[in-house]
Specification:
This protein is an alpha/beta fold. Helix content is 59%, strand content 8%. Strands 1, 2, 3, 4, 5, 6 and 7 form a seven-stranded mixed β-sheet that branches. The radius of gyration is 28 Å and the shape is elongated.
């Protein structure tokens, strides 16, 4: 008798799981769409407890947590969903927003970047890319503030040996027109040194934030007293700094200095000299000088990649680009746009300028609140869902052979066209 009762109990539990589980999920989704988030959380929690391996339940529960303002729980559930639904736009988008609400800007940028790769033709892509640019600056500011607050506790011995920062080179004895080269030179050095796989190079955006916090202008000299603190705050074992001097109207010389933070002493490097119209060669010579002075091993392939990185051979285009970087770093986005456009008009193949132009253009526009971003997302979902329904109706009608009844869509602006299939939740 006991065995029969036990078997009966197991059958009842199994029936409850089979019947109640899908019902809980169905009701949870209904409450989520209706905006009744407490009930949605209740139903979806029941559903996930009964079917913990179902990634769609984790996804919708994560969204319900997000809607309820419980962002840490949202991240947990959405990450569980992402393990099996890594191409689900809803998962990635809400993960980005949840991290952003938690001020986890690096993680938010990562998820938003994943979205732009996943949904390359989405009408939301431009908005998301704009947010990435903005959040990258928030992340840099947050990182620098944290470093400033914990400065006394930073142990320089804990800084990895392969970390390097390139500061701005101070111009001496050059014309006003050539002074912006100090921005472009630093930018190029960072890009080229980043091609060495064994090196970790600090980004220029971090450098700008540190300069601001230390009350320095980009043309200030980083001297023997300043460099160790700069390296400590940046988390860089080596700090490249120096000056460049105009020798004649046609020639210039760069005098680099390498500050080794753990040793606490500056190490002057050999000067690099060349023609101003051939400014790129001077920069390449400087990169090799830095690598050899640090005894950084590099492959022939890496060297060829560096030497082959010639974004432009036009000095005027590079000067416009350098001025644009200066404006960009100082938040003068409209002026930056003008300079990057000028650089591109001089050299239409200047890809670096095109990339910076996209960033400056995005930052020149007001940044949406996160609620406005979500509202735009919901609008995009509805629009894409409508187009998906239209496509389905068109295909069905064509299969029935009734061409005259094929639905005719409303004209769609080119930037809103999407060829992706919406993952409906």
């Amino acid at each position: 008798m006991l065995k029969i009762l036990r078997t009966l109990g197991i059958l009842i539990i199994a029936l409850l799981i089979m019947g109640f589980g899908p019902s809980s999920y169905k009701h949870g989704r209904k409450y989520l769409k209706q905006g009744d988030y407490p009930k949605a959380l209740e139903m979806l929690t029941d559903a996930v407890n009964l079917d913990p391996e179902n990634p769609k339940i984790h996804r919708d529960l994560g969204i319900a947590y997000y809607k309820s303002g419980q962002h840490e729980q949202a991240v947990d559930e959405l990450n569980l969903a992402k393990e099996k639904l890594e191409r689900d736009g809803n998962v990635v988008f809400y993960l980005g927003m949840a991290h952003e609400n938690l001020k986890q800007y690096d993680e938010a940028v990562e998820e938003y970047s994943n979205y732009t790769k996943l949904r390359r033709f989405s009408r939301m892509r431009k908005k998301i890319q704009k947010r990435i640019y903005w959040l990258a600056r928030q992340a840099a500011d947050q990182w620098v503030m944290e470093r400033m607050e914990m400065e006394k506790m930073i142990d320089t011995n804990s800084i990895p040996d392969n970390t390097i920062a390139v500061t701005y080179f101070k111009p001496f004895g050059v014309s006003k027109e050539l002074e912006p080269l100090h921005m472009g030179l630093t930018d190029l050095l960072i890009i080229d040194l980043s091609m060495i796989e064994s090196l970790k190079v600090l980004e220029r955006i971090i450098l700008k934030e540190i300069y601001d916090e230390l009350g320095l202008a980009s043309t200030d000299v980083i001297d023997q007293a300043t460099a160790p603190r700069m390296g400590k705050l940046l988390g860089a074992n080596s700090v490249v700094t120096g000056t460049f001097t105009g020798l004649t109207e046609e020639r210039w010389r760069v005098d680099p200095t390498l500050a080794l933070i753990k040793l606490g002493v500056p190490q002057p490097l050999e000067s690099v000299e060349g023609r101003i119209p051939g400014f790129m060669q001077v920069e390449k010579d400087l990169v090799i000088e830095i690598l050899e002075s640090l005894n950084i091993p590099y492959t022939q392939e890496e060297k060829e990649k560096i030497l082959g990185n010639i974004p432009t051979e036009s000095l005027q285009a590079f000067l416009a680009y350098s001025r644009g970087l200066d404006y960009l770093d100082n938040g003068m986005y409209n002026q930056a746009v003008t300079e990057f456009e000028n650089a591109i008009s001089i050299d239409p193949g200047f890809s670096n300028a095109k990339g910076q132009l996209a960033e400056a253009s995005s930052l020149s526009e007001p940044v949406e609140s996160i609620d406005e971003l979500e509202s735009a997302w919901n609008s995009a979902l509805a629009s894409e869902a409508g187009r998906a329904e239209l496509l389905k109706a068109t295909v069905d009608t064509l299969f029935q052979g009734d061409v005259e009844r094929v639905p005719v869509p409303e004209p769609t602006p080119p930037e809103e066209v999407s060829v992706e299939i919406l993952i409906s939740w």
